[in-house]
Amino acid sequence: MKRAAVLVPAPDFVEEWDWAYDVEADALRRGGFEVEARPWTEPGDLSGFDVVLPLVVWGYHLDPPRWHALLDRLEREAAVTLNPIPLLRWNSDKRYLAELSRVGVSTVPMRLVEAIDEAALNAARAEFGDMLVIKPPVSAAADGTHRLAAADPLPEEARGKAMLVQPYLATVASEGEYSIMLFGGTFSHAIVKRPKAGDYRVQPHLGGREEKCVAPEGAVDLAKAALAAAPVEAAYARVDLVRLPDGRLAVMELELIEPSLWLQHAPDQGASFAAAIAQRAQQ
What we know:
Blueprint: E1 2-8, H1 18-30, E2 33-39, E3 51-53, H2 64-76, H3 85-91, H4 96-102, E4 111-113, H5 118-128, E5 132-135, E6 146-148, E7 163-167, H6 171-174, E8 177-183, E9 186-194, E10 209-213, H7 219-228, E11 236-243, E12 249-255, H8 271-282
Parallel strand pairs: 1-2, 1-3
Antiparallel strand pairs: 4-7, 5-6, 5-7, 8-9, 8-11, 9-10, 11-12
């Protein structure tokens, strides 16, 4: 039986994470793996594992140097890491969205501001309209994300920092944010996530909810195009999509590090996920 180390949050991480880990670990066990959770901050000796999976490294964005030191270590030790380490590095910074846009992948319009101030907000409003969303390029779980109306000041916590600036899309609340799951490049299932009333963030810990859905027309092709533009092929992927005001779908994010894969909504309950991991672990 192959052994899989699933990297999970540090012991002092405050957000509940078992709900994501349990369903993924169960799918791996059904697929023939012995699974052990290891905190990504202190994973210990990983030499006895056939594959290392950073599936629940929640909180990595709070300590990027430590996260990249772990990736360097796994690379030095030649650990079989899935997704591959070059892909994890690339996906750790949302600047990759600009790369996708440059090669023609439909993405949410964006400005990257290296040191945000009022002038940058005004320039973005002139391009995108009065309502904006700003977020750090290294972030997760909506941490550091703000919705700003025309009269809203720049949050002091963001001032002078690198920020992605995007138009606020009302379709997130009215239609939802779609997540397309692909394993080994093959479509598995889709869900739609919606925020609680009055909010724009779809994360469960912020009151968001999800439900199984049929992938919208063109969604799977767009997700595959986004993955094809990544530097390395992904064993597992979640591609988050939203609808633009003109009706087109656009990539909000590629989740290739520690995504909730919602395997409880997969027709096969995650069998194709486990099979993709097993196949890559043998290569």
